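To: structure desk
From: M.T.
Subject: fold request, one chain
Message: Could you run this one when you get a chance? Sequence is below, nothing fancy, just the single chain.
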Amino acid sequence: MKRFKSIKSISPVLFPYTDRYSVRADAAQDLLISHKAKIIGKDNVARKPALGDDTLVVGKKPDGFHIFTAKVSHWVDDERKDIWYKKGGNRWKINYEITKATEPVFLTKEDIQTITGASDKDMSRLFVDQFGTDDPNSKIAHLGDFRKKLVDYLRS
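Reply: Done. Structure tokens follow.
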């Protein structure tokens, strides 16, 4: 399996965590583990980042989102990739070291809509990894613009 995409992504690459697959059924726990260990992981190998890509690391909760942004660094294929699994969470298929991580924050849906201008329909797809935004001519390219706005906000 290729470790990275060969071309830099147009918009931030998502690393979403959900309660269903997370440590203690709490997506915020997976996000905090990622932040502390400076490692991110996910299963969607079709949405791999390129080295140096911006990421949005998101812990989805019913009342909002725990979120931070970081840059993708090195591929991780050692014992660190099991950090979530050892605590009762998932063992992710692809794992990367991260650099330049912002502090995690909690944002409500309304906060994100104010920051990005996303509609309710957009919000239902904004943090879904299957909605990739690397084709600037696609009908969902605007989701990439919203993700960029979030990165800019988190870094400000």
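Reply (cont.): The helical segments are 27-37, 109-116, 120-126, 141-155. Let me know if you need anything else for the meeting.
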